[in-house]
Recover the amino acids of this structure.
């Protein structure tokens, strides 16, 4: 009976898990720059199995190329968007995970194929 009461929120609905802090870079799997949204996306595997299960999206302030032709992005210090457990969160204050994040959309998965849509001989491009 006690465990059931812990799952209920004050409003009487089911309590959602709190968004975890942004993961350590050691769990980073990949990065992408979304030119349309001007977001620098960092993809993480929290369990270390290569499966993407946490994504952050930072606004890009400036984009350039290094002397060697590599892309260089100057981003906001904290993400504007987080994707975790089929939920997209918005942090309009961009002040890091501290409890003021808002659910932007539920039941949504991060679609990596938008950024890497092709395969060649069964391998990602």
């Amino acid at each position: 009976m006690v465990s059931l009461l812990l799952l209920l929120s004050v409003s009487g609905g089911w309590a959602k898990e709190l968004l975890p802090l942004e993961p350590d870079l050691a769990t980073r799997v990949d990065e992408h720059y979304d030119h349309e949204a001007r977001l620098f996306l960092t993809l993480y595997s929290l369990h270390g199995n290569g499966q993407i299960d946490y994504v952050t999206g930072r606004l890009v302030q400036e984009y350039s190329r290094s002397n060697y032709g590599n892309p260089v992005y100057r981003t906001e210090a904290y993400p504007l968007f987080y994707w975790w457990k089929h939920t997209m969160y918005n942090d309009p204050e961009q002040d890091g995970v501290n409890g003021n994040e808002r659910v932007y959309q539920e039941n949504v998965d991060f679609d990596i194929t938008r950024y890497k849509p092709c395969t060649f001989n069964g391998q990602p491009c």
